[in-house]
Design brief:
By secondary structure, this protein is α/β, with parallel strands linked by helices. The chain contains 13 helices and 19 strands. The longest helix is centred in the C-terminal third of the chain and has 25 residues.
C-alpha cells in the first residue's frame, strides 16, 4: 500500500514527518513522493500563524476533492493543527479518515494500517509529551545535508506564541542519542548538520541543569564526515561566551547564527515577554562580530504587535538599519487564540502591520545589496546543490546561506561536480539576494 506525505511548516515538523515515514516504511508501506494514486495521504500540518493554518486547511480541502474523485483512498491529518483544532477537523471534514495529534506520532503506522484495512475512522490525541524525540528517519532533504533536532517544545512562553500549548514544555534529547544519530547521518553521506529546536541555545537545561549546546557542538565536531554544522533558532539571552568560543575555535561550526530577535523597542519586547533589551541585543551582536568578523547573522522581526505605536516602530526600523543584518525576515503579528497577546490592548490595523513590514524589508534589501557588492572578488567554499541546465551553471551555498531560507551562489565551471561536492568559487557579480561566481580552478 502506497503512502504519500505532505509536510507543512518548519524544519522541526519536517523531522517529525521523516520519523513517521521511516515507521511506515518499516511496517511495509511503500513511501511515494506524490499523492496521485496513493492509498493514504498524510498531511502533517503547521499552526504557528494564521497563514499556516490556512495553508493546512487548503491542503485538506485539496485532498478531500481528490478522495471524492477516487484519486486517493484515505486522508490522515497530523501535526500542530490537530493540537489546536482537532474538534473542528473532525466535525468539518468528515472525509478525513484519521486525526492524529503529535503525541501519537509514534503509532502513526498502526493507525494508517487500521484506516486502510478496517475502513474505520481513527482519532488519537494524547499528551504532547508522547512525541518521539529520537527514532529512525527517512530523510526528505538531499543526501548531503540534514536537520538534526536536539529538543522539542518550548518553555519561553512569549505572549504571541502558541507553541508551548501545542508542543508542550521544552524537552532536550540526551546528548548520546543526538551524537549517535549524527554518526548515522554521516555514514549515509550527510556533510552538513543543521541543528534545530524551538530554542537551540536552551539545549540541556532541563536534562542537565546547565546549557549544554557548546559541549554538544564539540562532540558533533569530532564525527568524521561532518564538515559543516549550522545553528538555527538561537535565543539571544542564552548565547554565552562559551558558545561564542566554540563557534570561533571549532572549524566545523559555521560562522552563521539564526538569532530571532522579534523587536527592538524595549516596551514591546517586555509585552512580548522576551528577555533582554534592545541595548543588550545590540551588545551581543557587537560581541559576535568582534569575535568572528565574518559571522553572518540572520534574524526575524515582527511588526504590528499590540501597542506598537509609531515611536516603537521607529526604534525597530532604526535598529534594523544600524545593525545591518546579513539575513532578515519579517512577518506581521498574527493573534493566536489562547495566547496573552490575542486580546491585548492596542491591536494594530492589518494594513499598518503590512506597511511596516514592507518598510523594513525595503531597507533590508538595500543592506543586503551593499553587503553582496562588497563580496565581489572574495573566494568562498561552496557546497554544490545542483546543476541548472537552463542557466548552464551550478547552484550552491556558502556558509552564509542556510538551505530553503537564504540565497544561493550561481557559478560556472569547466569541471564536473556532483551535489554535495565542495568547490572554491570566486564571486564575480550579484543577482538580487544571490551571488554569481566562477570556479577558481577554471580562472
Amino acid at each position: 500500500m502506497r503512502v504519500g506525505m505532505i509536510s507543512l511548516g518548519c524544519p522541526k515538523n519536517q523531522v517529525d514527518a521523516e520519523m513517521m515515514l521511516a515507521a511506515l516504511q518499516e511496517k511495509g508501506f511503500e513511501i511515494v513522493d506524490y499523492v496521485d494514486g496513493a492509498d493514504a495521504v498524510i498531511i502533517n500540518t503547521c499552526a504557528f500563524i494564521d497563514d499556516a493554518k490556512r495553508e493546512a486547511i487548503e491542503n485538506i480541502l485539496d485532498m478531500v476533492e481528490m478522495k471524492e474523485e477516487g484519486v486517493i483512498r484515505k486522508i490522515v491529518v497530523t501535526g500542530c493543527l490537530v493540537q489546536t483544532q482537532r474538534e473542528e477537523i473532525l466535525t468539518e471534514f468528515p472525509e478525513v479518515d484519521a486525526v492524529i495529534g503529535i503525541g501519537a506520532n509514534g503509532s502513526v503506522a498502526d493507525m494508517v494500517e487500521k484506516v486502510l484495512t478496517q475502513d474505520t475512522r481513527v482519532f488519537e490525541c494524547p499528551d504532547q509529551s508522547g512525541l518521539p524525540l529520537d527514532s529512525q528517519r527517512l530523510l526528505t532533504t538531499p543526501e548531503y545535508w540534514a536537520y538534526l533536532k536536539i529538543a522539542d517544545g518550548c518553555s519561553n512562553c512569549c505572549t504571541y506564541c502558541a507553541i508551548p500549548s501545542i508542543r508542550g514544555a521544552y524537552r532536550s534529547r540526551p546528548t548520546e542519542s543526538i551524537v549517535e544519530e549524527a554518526k548515522q547521518l554521516a555514514e549515509t553521506g550527510v556533510k552538513e548538520l543543521i541543528l534545530i529546536a524551538q530554542d537551540t541555545t536552551n539545549y540541556g537545561m532541563d536534562l542537565y541543569g546547565e546549557l549544554r549546546l557548546p559541549a554538544l557542538l564539540r562532540e558533533l565536531c569530532a564525527i568524521d564526515g561532518i564538515e559543516w554544522i549550522r545553528l538555527l533558532y538561537c535565543y539571544p539571552d542564552k548565547v554565552t561566551d562559551e558558545l561564542i568560543d566554540v563557534m570561533k575555535t571549532e572549524p566545523k561550526v559555521l560562522h552563521y547564527m539564526d538569532l530571532p530577535l522579534q523587536h527592538a523597542d524595549d516596551r514591546v519586547l517586555a509585552a512580548m515577554n522576551r528577555r533582554g533589551t534592545a541595548a543588550e541585543n545590540r551588545a551581543l551582536i557587537e560581541k559576535l562580530r568582534e569575535a568572528m568578523p565574518d559571522i553572518v547573522i540572520r534574524t526575524t522581526f515582527m511588526t504590528g504587535f499590540p501597542g506598537e505605536d509609531e515611536d516603537a516602530f521607529d526604534n525597530l526600523a532604526l535598529f534594523v538599519n544600524e545593525m545591518a543584518f546579513d539575513r532578515m525576515g519579517c512577518f506581521a503579528f498574527s493573534p493566536q487564540e489562547g495566547t496573552p497577546a490575542f486580546d491585548m490592548d492596542g491591536q494594530v490595523e492589518d494594513d499598518v502591520k503590512q506597511r511596516r513590514g514592507e518598510v523594513l524589508m525595503d531597507d533590508q534589501y538595500s543592506i543586503v545589496e551593499d553587503k553582496d557588492l562588497s563580496r565581489i572578488g572574495n573566494t568562498y567554499t561552496v557546497l554544490v546543490e545542483e546543476y541548472d541546465a537552463y542557466a548552464d551553471c551550478y547552484v550552491g551555498r556558502t556558509y552564509m546561506d542556510a538551505p530553503e531560507i537564504d540565497g544561493v551562489l550561481y557559478f560556472t565551471s569547466d569541471r564536473d561536480y556532483e551535489p554535495g561536492d565542495f568547490v572554491e568559487v570566486r564571486v564575480t557579480d550579484t543577482k538580487d539576494y544571490d551571488l554569481v561566481g566562477r570556479d577558481v580552478l577554471c580562472l
